[in-house]
Amino acid sequence: MIDLHTHTDQSDGTLRPAALVERALESGLRAIAITDHDNFDGYDLAEPAARERGLDLICGIELSTRGSPSHDGKRAPSVHLLGYFPEEAPPPWFRHWIRGMLDSRHKRNVALVAKLRSLGVDIALEEVQVVGRNLTARPHFAQVLLRKGYVSTLQEAFDRYLADDAAAAVAREEPALEEGVRRIREAGGIASLAHPVRIRGGRDGAELASLLESLVPAGLNAIEVYHSEHEPQDVALYASLAREMDLLVTGGSDFHGDTKPEIALGSGKAGNVSVEDAVLERMREAVRTT
Asked: Which fold has domain 2-100+172-289?
């Protein structure tokens, strides 16, 4: 079995890259993809350990993008894309583009601290960066808000302060969804729509089909069918859409470690994720023949 959606402490996971390699081997996995948010540092650090230990490690990334604005003009919510490079690592120009995303994230974090302080929250960017370490994101702000007693749960931190429509919301510069798809494909990768259940209309077959149809011309060639948040009926819907639109299937647990202890590497929530080796074999064949 394999797991094509994992995170290390180089984004919002808690395991160091080499420790994630060891956990994968202990879990009996043949291959994993490290898909940290907007960076390849986790993959780069894990690659020597994976090679030494005989684990098939796939270079991946989870990009934050923005969909089209809604009909009422409101800013569209963030949509995540998974990019996979199962044969060759992405070229230097793509890595350079990714580094620009980290710069925009830092600017957002500075503005987010200022807005939280204007709401009476005693918080400093430095204390959030201690939690976030290599990549400071909203989940790390949520942990600080929880620790300092401003909220009683991590979800409340998002609902009250951090979500796109919450009191301290700060827009971050993110590429358009179509641009993210195009750049992944131009870099030689596979572009997969991540956890579609989270997308507006993600459980509506007609609405999701319309979105996929709009992205295929930009180069979208996969959809994440298997995920810890997908119910059996979701898996059936996404697999059906993949067949209808000739899209590759991807899947994984979305493992984060201690921040999401209910999600196990390779098997998701209570064993609801199971991704066969053939999924990766088809991805590699698609890259070879493109």
From this structure: TIM Barrel (3.20.20)
Bridging pattern class, strands 78-85 and 222-226: unpaired
Which residues pair with residue 185 across a beta bridge? Answer: none
pLDDT, one tens digit per residue, over 219-238 is 999 999 999 999 999 999 99
Sign of CA dihedral 224, 33, 38, 23: positive
Q: At what angle do helices 232-244 and 205-215 cross, to 10 degrees?
A: 40
179-216 in b/e form (b: 16+ CB < 10 A) is ebbbbbbebbbbbbbbbbbebeebeeeeebbebbeebe
Q: In angstroms, rounded to a whole number, what is the distance separating the alpha carbons of residues 227 and 235?
A: 8
pTM: 0.89
Q: What is the mean pLDDT of the chain?
A: 94
Structure tokens that stand for 253 in this block: 């647990």
Compute the radius of gyration of the chain from its Cα atoms: 18
By C-alpha distance, which of 179, 212, 176, 181 is closest to 69? 176
CB count in 10 Å sphere of residue 27: 16
C-alpha 169/C-alpha 161 separation (Å) is 7
In order of 96, 188, 225, 226, 259, the CA distances from 197 in angstroms are 30, 26, 10, 10, 20
pLDDT in tens, 195-217: 999 998 999 999 999 999 999 99
Tokens of 42: 């986790």
How far, in Å, are 67, 116, 146, 177 from residue 77 at the CA level?
7, 20, 24, 11
| Residue 267 burial (10 A CB sphere; 0-12, 13-18, 19+) | buried
- Categorise residue 188: left if φ over 0, alpha if ψ from -120 to 50, beta otherwise: left
**How far is 86 from 192, CA to CA, in rounded Å?**
13
